[in-house]
Amino acid sequence: MTQQSPARLAGLDKTQCETFRRDGFLHPVDVMPETEAKALRAQIEALEARKHGRLSGLTRAKPHLLLPYLWDVVHDARILDKVGSLLGPDIICIGSSVIDKPARSDGYVAWHQDATFWGLTENQGATAWLALSDVTSGSGAMQAIPGTHARQLRHLDTADDKNMLGAREAVDSQPDLSRAVWMMLKPGQMSLHHPLVLHGSGPNASDDRRLGFVIRYTSARVRQEEAPRRWCAAGTWRRSPLKSGQRRKWTRRH
Ligand SMILES: O=C(O)CCC(=O)C(=O)O
């Protein structure tokens, strides 16, 4: 796997791991310099320009399978080392997406738990939400409610097309919004969230788009029970033994 930054150890520290386990999410986590995130954004925008200004839904779903520069992000040790701190050395990628909220748009993401439709054998996972633009309360940052990752809640179809979720779903109960935490990010930072933590986001009222590249990782022992044939793995990784002062290498397993 290509190394993209100078040798260093880049796992989460103990406090960060404890925060994720306690709250079900963690932010902000530095991944790459702002300039690098902006260069990724520019690559996506160059592609959009060639595709009449907007990526199709098909291209935005699992785009790392189409676009080498996003494949590299999925495999980037600066992300894998941190996800590995939470999930252990064997990790699988079960999906990715480019999530876009255009400037001054009214799309929102209703309060939900990601695992609702995933059908996983266990919720040993973490979503890495990498910011490619400024993510603020005004641009529609995600919010999450600490400690809601302990159990699966019932969801319903909101029948609202402004709800950007695939099944227009929302949790079937009123979340305690007084406990909600904003997950604001600068370009190049990510948040990490558990498959069961309750989260959502509002419209983008800012003059810039809110753009994120989102990668779903689980432990490699996790299987999809309900639709095994649609299990969509881009590969699993094994972590090399840690040697003092060296960067860890991740190699692909088949
Ligand atoms: O991008 C957002 O606002 C929400 C994304 C989300 O729900 C997720 O990544 O699980």
TrEMBL record:
Its cofactor is Fe(2+). This is Phytanoyl-CoA dioxygenase family protein. PANTHER family: ECTOINE DIOXYGENASE (PTHR20883:SF48), PHYTANOYL-COA DIOXYGENASE DOMAIN CONTAINING 1 (PTHR20883). Pfam families: PhyH. One of its GO terms (molecular function) is dioxygenase activity. InterPro entries: Phytyl_CoA_dOase-like. It comes from Sulfitobacter porphyrae. The keyword Oxidoreductase applies. Keywords: Dioxygenase, Oxidoreductase. Transmembrane segments: none annotated. It comes from the Bacteria. The keyword Oxidoreductase applies.
